Amino acid sequence: MKYFAGMLLVIGLGLALAPAPGCSSDGSGSERGDFLHSERPLVELDGHVWQLLEVGGLAFTLPPGSTVPSISFDTESGKASGHAGCNQFFGQFVISGSSLSFEQLGTTRMACPEPLASVEQRFLAALGNTDGYAMQGSELLLLSGSTVLARLH
Fold it and tell me: Phi/psi at 45 (nearest 5 deg)?
């Protein structure tokens, strides 16, 4: 059993170190591949509360006392949850290499005043449109193709 688990770890590390699709080993990858150059492994989503920095390329200002929108991943269960601005959200995520998508997202339904309502709406839309992710330094980028939908730290 230990041998089998060790082989899975070696195979998993080999896959994790292989160049991502669209990212060549000579550094001439696509725009999306340019994001993938990182000292950190791409699987560092687990065990961290990722706080939203910007969504749709726009930074935002929240009223004093507001909770910063955030997301957490549980890679064992495939569940994601977080705070969207006013409401909590929860659902499943699917990850494979640099591909990431969210499924069956649900939220609580509290009324939100502005600007929280706009931030929440844009963040939830970004999650719904995510088809990939990348690490850039200590930041998590949620991507649609090569477009950055949201930037979190």
Answer: -80, -35
